[in-house]
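$ run holo --ligand "AHM" --emit tokens
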Amino acid sequence: MAKRVSLTRYLVEQQRVDGLIPGQLRLLLEVVARACKSISQAVNKGALGGVLGSADSENVQGEVQKRLDIIANEVLIEANEWGGHLAGMASEEMDAIYVVPNRYPKGEYLLLFDPLDGSSNIDVNVSIGTIFSVLRMPEDDRGVDEGDFLQNGAQQVAAGYCVYGPQTTLVLTVGDGVAMFTLDREQGSFVLTQENVRIPADTQEFAINMSNMRHWDEPVRRYIDECLQGRDGPRNKDFNMRWIASMVADVHRIMTRGGIFMYPWDKREPNKPGKLRLMYEANPMAWLVEQAGGAATNGRQRILDIQPTQLHERVSVILGSKNEVERVTSYHSTL
Ligand code: AHM
Ligand code: MG
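-- output --
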């Protein structure tokens, strides 16, 4: 019988055999996975758990928070604050950073997350997920402040997401490729179901919110327009479209069978670089995608090279199959 590898065993082997992750980081990832398991439970209960609907509050970006947004945020904080592996946390759902209280020991890592991505899908029973990014606390530091979090994505030491769909799947990188773990509900553990995830370099599938087409910039219009012309146009092949409106679920499809995902800058709010957030949405996804052989840019620059200036900063996102991302990016420099 094939060996069944739990997330714990995988991480222990990464720590012991490959020396890839220190003990504190292993603990951190196990705790995040445990929190995701409990978020998955809450998501599964839905109306039975009284967790659907709006929470009558807004986050720092002025978006109405759903009850599950807040529950997921609390689960992640409560699970992570006492273990001694973290110095601080930051979340889409909190204006300011969360410094680990003094009553707990402080660790050397910073954890950033979007506790429940795809909020518009919560109440309609469509896949949603948790996205997370792990940074190292700068060494010379006395106390934790927002500036400690403002590191570019290339500095991440771990990144992942957990998609709550027909299956609950945790997808993880510590810089040694991408591995996927499926939640076995009877055993209560994540089990390794795919290693060395690879995104094909070519694709015939794109994901973008087409209803924003009239607001797009010229390079994005040109790319989509050429896809839409199918085999009669310059691409000489037909394209398919998917848009789940949960980045986690769209990226998971791309991880599984390739594709390109875009949430570009658009003219609705010209001063905003994009809709998605750099630190806890774009950066972790960009690193995962690169680790699986794909690419991720904002149209002009590799996402992982962008130097953040604010915790909740937004960014234009183009990621997925390498050749398609390079094509859209090249359109930005030629137009
Ligand atoms: P959220 O973090 O508030 O859920 O917003 C991010 C989500 C992404 O998951 C998704 O790709 C996008 O917003 C969908 O946007 P739209 O509703 O414009 O299609
Ligand atoms: Mg989000």
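-- notes --
Residues 23-45 form the longest helix (23 residues).
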